Amino acid sequence: MILKHIYALVDPRDHLVRYVGQTRNIMSRFESHCTGNAPATKTWVRELLSVGVAHTLVVLETVEHRRIRPTPGKPSVNAAAYAEAKWLKRFRRTALNRDGRICEAAWDLLKNSEQANAALKAI
Questions:
Q1: Alpha-carbon distances, residue 69 vs 3, 23, 50, 79, 118 (angstroms)
Q2: What domains does the chain contain, in order, with CATH numbers?
Q3: Range list of H helices, the chain
Q4: What is the distance between the alpha carbons of residues 42 and 62, in angstroms, rounded to a whole number?
Q5: Residue 95: Cβ-neighbour burial (10 angstroms; 0-12, 13-18, 19+)
Q6: Sequence-distant contacts of 46-55: CB under 8 A, at least 24 apart
Q7: pLDDT digit string (tens) for 63-110?
Q8: Which of 43, 71, 74, 103 could make an S-S bridge to 97, C-beta 3.0–4.6 Å?
Q9: How big is the chain by its Cα radius of gyration, in Å?
């Protein structure tokens, strides 16, 4: 069984979740965020490093990496991706998306998807 960790990066200055992601190897992913090379968090992490503070990684949930079929007759979906989406929904006003912008618009697109809504209800 392959497990995926859904995690958040927290800003130590205001304790807001700034990034939600998923990974199999939490330590390796944390190290990549610490270097400031991850595209979505590059500017934010470098800003933190310039003032001498570091972000905190919090594991929100661990899920089995498998396909689920939330609605009969609909295509299967990745359970880890939908668990991540569930947490993005919760932190959408503060979390950054892949482009390093706040992900409110990205969530608006996701929440209007019938398949996404069915999968989120199933989790």
A1: 18, 22, 45, 9, 10
A2: 3-122 (3.40.1440.10)
A3: 26-34, 42-50, 79-91, 104-111, 114-122
A4: 25
A5: buried
A6: 48/11, 48/12, 48/13, 53/12, 53/13, 54/12, 55/9, 55/10, 55/11, 55/12, 55/18
A7: 988 887 766 777 777 888 878 888 888 887 777 665 555 555 445 555
A8: 103
A9: 15
State the pTM of this model: 0.72
Which residues, 6+ apart, have CB-to-CB distance to 50 below 8 Å? none
Token pair belonging to 23: 């990974």
At position 86, the amino acid (one-letter code) is K
Structure tokens at 30: 């944390």
Q: For 7-51, what is each residue's pLDDT tens digit?
A: 998 988 888 888 898 899 999 888 888 876 777 788 888 888 888
Buried b (16+ CB within 10 A) or exposed e, 81-92: bbbbbbbbbebb
